[in-house]
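call fold(seq) -> tokens
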Amino acid sequence: DAWHAAGLPVELDRVETNFVQLDTSRLGLSQSETIAALRDVGVLLSPTLGDTHIRAVTHLDLDDGDIDRAIDLVPDALGAHVHA
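ret:
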């Protein structure tokens, strides 16, 4: 919800588990460009659903602070590509 509110192309109707998908084509970036930009700020996401989607997955070793940091870091890292 926070990424969607920040203007990221999160498909909320597809979030049913701990997987959150972002459509990189709606950012004007390739999947690999988006993954690299996020990796540069310490957020690791992975490719999914073909060439235009990436996914974020919560994991047992992540805590609420990690989630809060990702909520802030991802829109900041993608900057001008986010449509708030």
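The beta strands are 19-23, 46-48, 53-57.
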